[in-house]
Specification:
Keywords: Membrane, Transmembrane, Transmembrane helix. The chain is an all-alpha fold. The chain is built from six helices and no strands. It is elongated.
């Protein structure tokens, strides 16, 4: 059991490092291209590259904002001076709502921009649906049925989720940096 908590912590810290490094990459992209392409409909999405670019940055922006808030909310709930069972129920319920807020925000922002989902956004979306499902199961099992039968699966899944989310989010910037390097080299 302690190994799963360690794996979860390592995966979470790795995810935080990935988010920070992607935010730095976004600062360079924003300086080079500006950020109007994300929200201004005058910039047409007429190529596969522009669709991937807009979709990726919308998804990353929502992840960045919600992850910052999620960490603070989780800490506030865990340290709250309330009944243990109520705190447990609140933790999992808020986790489900944050993931549902993420899914709704990504869909709404893509619809407002008129941009279809990229492959990366689809992967992140599907992973988030799994997180919402398993968090809801934990809400029922630990909050109301008082059983920890799914806890090892939940902890392991969280570690795997953060790992795959990090890999998925890093794939686009790494590919873009590699392609720009190849263009400069030739």
């Amino acid at each position: 059991m302690p190994e799963l908590e360690l794996y979860n912590l390592i995966a979470l810290r790795g995810f935080q490092v990935c988010v920070f490094s992607i935010a730095i990459y976004f600062a360079f992209v924003a300086k080079k291209k500006g950020i109007a392409f994300l929200y201004d409909k005058r910039f047409k999405l007429n190529s596969d590259y522009s669709i991937k670019l807009v979709s990726y940055w919308i998804t990353f922006g929502v992840i960045f904002v919600l992850h910052l808030g999620d960490e603070q909310i989780n800490y506030a709930i865990i340290t709250a001076d309330v009944d243990y069972i109520f705190r447990r129920r609140l933790f999992y319920l808020v986790r489900v709502w944050i993931v549902l807020m993420f899914l709704t925000s990504v869909y709404a922002l893509h619809s407002l921009r008129g941009c279809p989902f990229s492959y990366t956004t689809r992967l992140v979306y599907y992973l988030s649906m799994l997180v919402a499902t398993i968090s809801f199961a934990q809400f029922i099992l630990r909050g109301y049925l008082h059983t920890d039968i799914l806890s090892p699966v939940y902890r392991g899944f969280n570690a795997v989720h953060y790992f795959f989310l990090s890999i998925t989010l890093l794939s686009y910037p790494v590919k873009a940096i590699y392609q720009s390097y190849r263009i400069r080299a030739t």
